[in-house]
Amino acid sequence: MREYEPQTIEHRWQEAWDRSGVFRCGEALPGRPRFYCLEMLPYPSGRLHMGHVRNYSIGDAVARFRRMRGEQVMHVIGWDSFGLPAENAAIQHGEDPGVWTRKNIAVMRAQLRRLGLGYDWQREISTCDPEYYRWNQWFFLRMFERGLAYRARRPLNWCDRCQTVLANEQVTDGRCWRCDGTVSKREFEQWFLRITNWAEDLLAGLDDLHAWPDKVRTMQRHWIGRSEGARVRFPVEDSSTPIEIFTTRIDTIWGATYLALAAEHPLAASLVAGRPEERAVLAFIEEQLGRGIEDRFADSAVKLGVPTGRYARNPFSGEAIPIWIANFVLMDVGTGAIMSVPAHDARDLDFARAHGLPVRQVVRPTVGIATEAGVAYTEDGSLFDSGPYSGLASAEARSQLIESARRSGFGEATVAYRLKDWGVSRQRYWGTPIPIVHCESCGLVGVPDSDLPVCLPDKAPLSGAGGSPLSQLAEFVAVACPRCGGAARRETDTMDTFVDSSWYYFRYLDPTNTAAPFDVANQNPWLPVDLYIGGIEHATMHLIYTRFWTRMMKELGLCTIDEPVRRLFTQGMVIKDGAKMSKSKGNVVDPDQMIERFGADTTRLFALFAAPPERDLDWNEAGVEGCSRFVGKVWRAFHRVRERLPAPGIPAPAVALDGPALELRRKTHRTIKKVTEDLGERMHLNTAVSSIMELNNALTPLADSEASGPAELWAVAEAIDALIRLLAPFAPHLAEELWHARGGSGFVALAPWPDASPDLLVSDTVAVVVQVNGKLRGQLTLAVGTGQEEALAAARADPRVAAHIDGKRLVRVVHVPDRLLNLVVG
After folding, report:
1. What's phi and psi for 338, nearest 5 deg?
2. C-alpha closest to that of 555 among 34, 90, 104, 146
3. Considering only CA atoms, which of 649, 570, 697 is closest in space to residue 59?
4. Given 58, 512, 672, 676, which is the most exposed site by the fewest CB atoms within 10 A?
5. Would you give the DSSP letter of residue 463?
6. Pairing state of beta strands 617-618 and 574-576?
7. Nearest partner of 262 among 248, 238, 245, 239, judged by Cα
8. Gap between the Cα atoms of 198 and 200, Å rounded
9. Cβ of 779: how many Cβ atoms within 10 Å?
10. How many other β-carbons are positioned within 10 Å of the β-carbon of residue 497?
11. Mean per-residue pLDDT for 618-622?
């Protein structure tokens, strides 16, 4: 028996899989069940780490299982290859982003292949290829024609470290999602996509995503942020332009003691133009726009503000109330202006106390509930000091106040969303050029489809300074207007890279199509994606954008589905030294090193076995060594008994299969059932591997025993033949080697999955719990169907039970067959 040599074995089977095209999917076959299994496509950052291995091993195990179950499996990979890291690397190392990216892709592709992942490599895509991003541009033009892509000047999130604009979803606790730098607000003219047109539909659609994690659906609901309320316009004294606010608590409007505007509000500067307060207000606005969002909006942030010297009138009470600019108000929330009711809102109260503004309570609790002194009362209640609305309950007051505002023309009921239109402009080189031309005569003009793709120029001055590098290339910028032929200039911003990943799994289905993004006929049999695996950090970015993009494509007639993903699985992170494994934290474990030492199968097994796949996995090299020992045990157990085993398919011997042989058969079929369930809808991959380990332990004594006869060896052969196939999704190279050595035909990757015999899932014995006066005192192993008298006799004979009943009177016996025996003694 030769030693197990993973590097030799794994390389041989990887080449064999490639030559035979085992994992090529081909066209959808009529009448055959299909399964589209997908992991979120990686960014080619240079090398894989064990976090990647875990993600892709989960998907590969499920894909292999489904293939062996007879389903036609689509399992594909590509590269999310545009983005800021490539540009930063070019700045740091003087290397072209395209060269850097494609070099990384080559390295990471080789690593994925070395892991033995069963992808259909003929469908591989890279989002930085012009033949991919031309369709980003094509989609943009279709949205531009429909008014869904538009240009506007707004205060936007700015990351100074990355020197680019960020969408709201790319800001986490006031910091850049990629570099963790502080994000501030700056005003730019940018391109937006009207994702808010689908806000209600995106929210309602979450109710149908039953196979998505509740946490992701909750995060998306919060991010979309539907609020029912009212828009109310407060007239500004000495001005014809009112200030519009949004409120969910119009019932508190008689308690408003000031208006507060965001520093970014379009009226903020004009309110003080030419007035004594102008200098102080403008200085405050500038200072606030330079601050990080977290510094301004966090609950713990100091409530800063400056008075404008202007007043607005409460449209209900007629009272004049001061207008302030405040740091805790943001343009991204509501209208960027609020009516502040300190008695009924904690932030308003903090600001009022800090600046000596009045606090006026107008809603009190129902009878029997006291309010805490000095604390804002934020619940519904009964109105008082509210003019004709005093005495009404909050809900009834809201209804009447909104109707009164509507009749009077200064307000109306409305629904507001936290979700804002998607700002897709980026001041970068390495991204999809936006296919728009600026013409002084014609305005904004879309590039004709026949001129797509608008390709990135080969070279650009990458310095890290502000502004788009493309704007510095006269040969790229100068262009004739497609409409009038006059001198014009190209748009020099590029698209947010989340555009690339919003529709890529549609392209996998038709990756070489040059006439359209994809053929509708090709995607219909496969979508939505049956299983999508990736990190929960994309819950309010990629996973919202792609749901929007699918709906937009449906409107264009390109697909028939609303939701792109049937089941979402968010795997846990790999943790090392107390932090998520990542290059930026310097705690990366290179899988190539693990493969060199232990082999790909061991590396994959550890990633799948060490923790439930939805939970974080703590990196532990001792755990890898344990998986290596298991692989060695399987190898040695097989080869020790190999020559004595009956050939596959030989009928069971005439002798009775009872005793140890029968027990092993039962163990085999219970393991088949358990692994099948764990790899199916349950996704309990770690317990599936554990069950396979237990089966190997169970068969080893009979395999090693010289006393094992035909019955025992037949049971061992059945167990080994099942174990090889059960191992195939987890340790595919080892499984192929043992399958071949056992005389199996073809590839185990295409072999039928084993079936569990129902007859062998039923045990001859059961564990019966014994209680005395309700307390657990023992456990008996009894034959199935044992009656009360026999069970009682067995309990009396058990020393653990006898110690509690001997010498006592048996008052009552409660017997639940095959489960429980409760003895009541006195």
Report:
1. -130, 150
2. 146
3. 570
4. 512
5. -
6. parallel
7. 245
8. 6
9. 14
10. 25
11. 91
> Among residues 726, 699, 564, 690, which one has the least CA distance to residue 642?
699
pLDDT at 681: 85
Q: How far apart are CA 475 and CA 337, in angstroms?
A: 44
State the Cα–Cα distance between residues 63 and 729, nearest whole angstrom: 8
What CA–CA distances, in Å, run from 175 to 156, 225, 304, 503? 13, 21, 20, 27
Least confident of 381-390, 449-458, 491-500, 778-787: 778-787
* Rounded CA separation 81/500 (Å): 9
For residue 537, what are its two tokens?
């950090």
- The alpha helices in 84-187, defined as continuous H runs, are 84-93, 97-114, 130-145
Element (H, E) at 259: strand 258-261
Q: Is the peptide bond before 365 cis (omega within 30 degrees of 0)?
A: no
| Residue 338 CA, distance from chain mean position | 34
Element (H, E) at 281: helix 278-289
Residue 656 structure tokens: 């009775």
Question: Model pTM?
Answer: 0.86
Burial 407-434 (b: 16+ CB within 10 A, else e): eeebbeeeebbbbbbbbbbbbbbbbbbb
How far is Cα 177 from Cα 43, in angstroms, rounded to an integer? Answer: 15
Question: What are the helix (H) ranges across 210-303?
Answer: 214-224, 278-289, 293-297
Strands (E), 168-211: 171-172, 175-176, 183-193
Measured in whole angstroms, the distance separating CA 354 from the mean position of its chain's CA atoms is 41
Q: d(Cα 617, Cα 593) in Å, to the nearest integer?
A: 19
- pLDDT score for 588: 86
Q: Which DSSP helix (H) or strand (E) runs through 714?
A: helix 710-727
Question: CA angle, corner 76, sides to 570 and 15, nearest 5?
Answer: 120
Q: Which amino acid is present at 187?
A: E
For residue 116, the 8-state DSSP code is T
Residue with tokens 């996998």: 508
Residue that the structure tokens 């730019």 belong to: 188
Distance CA 288, CA 277 (A): 17
Query: Which amino acid appears at position 571 of this protein?
Result: Q
* For residues 248-254, average pLDDT: 97
Alpha-carbon torsion 470, 476, 478, 484, what sign?
A: negative
Per-residue pLDDT tens over the stretch 426-436: 988 999 999 99
Among 666, 645, 219, 647, smallest CA distance to 419 is for 219
Q: Which of 68-72, 437-441, 778-782 has the lowest mean pLDDT?
A: 778-782
Q: Which amino acid is at 547?
A: R
Give the closest residue to 343 by CA, choosing from 324, 360, 327: 360
| Opening angle at CA 383, ends 378 and 387, nearest 5 | 130
Residue 600 CB-half CA count within 13 A = 29
State the pLDDT at residue 157: 81
CA distance 766 to 737: 38
Mean pLDDT computed over every residue of the chain: 93
Residue 304: what residue type?
Answer: L
3-class DSSP assignment, residue 580: strand
For the beta carbon of residue 565, count every other beta carbon within 10 angstroms.
24
Under 8 Å CB-to-CB from 399, ≥6 apart: which residues?
none
Beta strand pairing status for 125-126 and 78-79? parallel
Measured in whole angstroms, how far is the alpha carbon of residue 782 from the centre of its chain?
48
Instruction: Return d(Cα 131, Cα 513) in angstroms, integer.
Output: 9
Vertex 350, ends 345 and 352: CA angle to 5°? 90
Q: What is the three-state SS of 385-437?
A: CCHHHCCCEHHHHHHHHHHHHHHHCCEEEEEEECCCCEECEECCCCCCECCEE
Beta-bridged to residue 490, according to DSSP, are 437
pLDDT of residue 46: 85
Q: Is the dihedral of CA 533, 536, 542, 545 positive or negative?
A: positive
In 127-243, where does DSSP find H-type helix? 130-145, 199-205, 214-224
Bond preceding residue 453 cis, omega within 30 of 0: yes
